Model the fold of this input.
Amino acid sequence: MAAPALLALALGTLAVMAAPPEGPHLSLSPPEPKPRQPFNVTCSFGVAVPAANVTVTANDDARPVTLSQDGHRATATVTVATEGSVRLGCTVLAGSRELRASATAQAYHVPVPLLDVADAAVAGTALRGSCSLPAGAVRDIRVRVLAAGRGVLRDSEQPPVTFELRAREEDAEPGLEVTCVAKMDPYNSRSKSQRIRVLVKPRLDPERCPPQQNWTEGQEGILHCSAGGAPAPQVSCSKDGNSLAPGAARPAARAHAGTYLCQATNELGTAERNVTVRVHYEDSFPLLPVLLGVLLPAAALLGLAALLVLRHRARIGEYRLWKRQPPQDARPLRAPGSSAAAAPNGSAAP
Done:
């Protein structure tokens, strides 16, 4: 596909040799024709004349013309073979009068520049590229290199030029756009742009992936863990071989408690973080075990106390019976709580 071009037409003062409004007027079609491609030069005049009376020239060479049906316009096809100035002229013979118009056109080819830069860069690394022009371009053309959000990198320099800038994380969305502009004053400029993908390694920040998370049994539980990076990383979390999808709601259960290994992965690598999930729960009050645990020991103590009391009373009754009717060969009994019981005859027991 041929490179776009601009034919700048600088019309000078028309040298009209007859009184207006009969004087000729020159125009081009298309208004910005391409060099080395045919375009039309039309000469318009206010009187009707035959085609033989109209001459259209380019660089003093007469070109065949086609006359309109009303005889007021003559059109010639012209091709600019080389870049530079083109002299255009129109002569009209109207009876005894000769009407003339002339103009100078400047034909220059300002091509679309060539932008050579990678289509992707990793954030934090240097991005290098160059801006040049196709072979055969006019040496007076200068180029400028711009980056969106960065301003001008190289300005009004003769191509080819090289440039360098550092890719940043904030360039990841929507991408880093670099533009090369070719221009030659006072003519229109041509440009070439390219949007560069900025890649960012995965990152699991505490804000996006809290290391401690609390759930309540029976209520909705969501494992919150998302990652930064470009392209957007895929995040997965697992514990003891069981996966738990981040961001998905589920009824919280005690089995969900534990420490999960969360991983964020994209084409630049993997980032990891441990996330501990605590599940809070409330048990119903264990009435029967409590009652059994309290009443059984109490009952045992009461039974032991009653047994001791009964035994003590039995010993007291035995002692009193012995005092009323002591046996013939009985030895004195020691009363409970006394150091020594008195003998029947009033002497100390042996």
